[in-house]
Write a structure and sequence with these properties.
The chain is built from 12 helices and 10 strands. By secondary structure, it is of the alpha+beta class. The strands form 2 sheets. It has a 7-stranded antiparallel sheet with strand order 1-8-9-10-6-7-2. This is HRQ1 protein.
Length: about 400
């Protein structure tokens, strides 16, 4: 029989120690994985994807803006255009959770406008949606979005009993979504609480598609299409008219949605130009492939009241309990005069961006109509005209 010291020498030799070390590391890794999976569990969820564990939830802290005066918050100047060829890409950027929803000095005007659409019998069915089975995701989103606003902007939104008081609008919405009998009404309440539009997306494997489906939300600031025609359909239908979407953007978006985890927020922006003052547009902003589009005379346009740079701030995140994806859209309409007043650098970038928006993308965004007119205005070749009868956004 080997002595104690002979056994020790054997144990410490490379032929034993190295394999033993590997085994210990392997068991530690596997045990931690199993333990982590056991602690997290598998929640029943609508949208698929990994649910966040309790530790992830604890890391998400919303920092309150103290002494916040919303009337002094100018809209963020998103200027996503640049010189050169317009390329259709995801173009996403991670953002901190504090930046999910914004309150700026446009809040009252835009939520008033959205509420007027939501309560208009001819429009509300084109902008507020909820499919069967979307109740759970709707409740989760209502809870998380309203809590975010209370936490982030305590000077503007406060909980009082069973109500969330909106001090900007001078009204309130229910605090508890379970107290609302018709869960579709939760979207109605949010239409005057959030300036952003939003849609709820999740997959339905039984429909034999690998894409997420538009299952609910508020889509009252659509730009050139009727949201009712794409409700309860795959994401491709939402982007159906977008040239090259299926060949270029669809694979990127499907891959992105598969990997998007709770606790992550990403932003992307897009832009175009419109020659009217309507925010909710169901037919006029998009050009058809075979349409002959006539260019506009810059001398007949009001670049302060009628011609707008239209940009969207799009945020995507996944809800931790249901796994549904939230796609929020904040619409900015900036008078073209303001863009010109921002200086020569911005002007040159915009001109280069318009000139680079050629082919099918330019046709889709109706560039042949407004492109030459905006370029002429930006170069100072025309100052347009005044139309004082145009009163604000509609």
């Amino acid at each position: 029989m080997a002595s104690f010291w002979e056994f020790t020498d054997l144990l410490l030799s490379k032929t034993v120690t190295f394999p033993l070390l590997l085994f210990v590391l392997y068991r530690t890794f596997v045990d931690d994985k199993v333990k982590g999976a056991g602690e997290r569990g598998e929640e029943g969820r609508t949208g698929g994807g990994a649910a966040a564990d309790e530790h992830d939830e604890e890391k998400i802290v919303i920092h309150a803006l103290k002494d916040f005066d919303w009337t002094k918050e100018d809209p963020i100047k998103y200027r996503p255009f640049k010189k050169g060829e317009y390329k259709l890409t995801m173009g996403i950027h991670n953002i901190p959770p504090d930046e999910w929803f914004l309150v700026e000095n446009t809040y009252k005007e835009y939520t008033d406008l959205k509420w007027s659409y939501a309560t208009n019998p001819d429009l509300k069915d084109h902008g507020i949606f909820m499919a069967d089975g979307c109740e759970e995701a709707t409740i989760e989103f209502y809870q998380r979005s309203t809590q975010f606003m209370v936490d982030r902007y305590p000077d503007c939104f406060q909980v009082e009993g069973d109500k969330i008081i909106n001090k900007i609008r001078g009204d309130w919405i229910p605090r508890d979504p379970y107290s609302v009998a018709n869960k579709k009404d939760l979207h109605l309440y949010l239409s005057r609480f959030l300036e952003e539009d939003y849609i709820i997306l999740y997959p339905e494997p039984e429909r034999k598609t690998d894409e997420v489906i538009f299952k609910g939300g508020v889509f009252l600031f659509a730009a050139g299409f009727d949201p009712a025609t794409i409700f309860n359909t795959p994401l491709t239908n939402i982007h159906g008219p977008v040239p090259e979407y299926k060949s270029k953007l669809r694979p990127q978006m499907n891959k992105f949605f598969d990997k998007l985890k709770p606790g992550v927020w990403v932003r992307r922006n897009n832009w175009s130009v419109q020659t009217h003052n309507r925010v909710f547009v169901m037919n006029d902003n998009k050009g058809k492939e075979d349409e002959e589009i006539t260019d506009l005379d810059p001398d007949t346009l009001d670049f302060q009241r009628e011609v707008f740079f239209r940009s969207e701030r799009q945020i995507l995140t996944r809800l931790p309990k249901t796994g549904a994806i939230i796609f929020s859209i904040r619409t900015y309409l900036t008078p073209m005069k303001q863009i010109r007043d921002e200086g020569n650098d911005i002007v040159l970038e915009l001109i280069g961006g318009i000139e680079g928006m050629q082919g099918v993308i330019g046709q889709y965004k109706r560039r042949p109509a407004w492109g030459p007119a905006v370029i002429a205005y930006m170069k100072g070749e025309s100052n347009g005209t005044d139309k004082p009868w145009i009163k604000g956004l509609q």
